[in-house]
User: What shape does this take?
Amino acid sequence: MDSRILCNFYRCTVERILTGCITAWYGSCTALNRKALQRVVKTAQNITRTELPSMEDLYSQRLRKKSLRIIKDPHHPITPATNCSVCCRLAGVTAASGQKPPDSETVSSHRQ
Assistant: This one.
């Protein structure tokens, strides 16, 4: 069979399965688990007779893409602009009012 077809099959099926939610689980894998996953990639390289990205490379690539999406999303909870607006809304302060957000003592005294 043509190596391009085999490589395409690997990339579309096997790699997709191996990297499903990789940003959530790969960071906590043991070295033994990572070696086992890399053996799958090495076997696929032998079958397809092509160079394939390592699991570490795939993890880094996906992590980078996910980080960029989070940074570009102004509504994501960890975006600095969102954090400030959420804090101000919770404290009842708007940007148009020109007020500074109250300190924690002021907020707690108003809640009592």
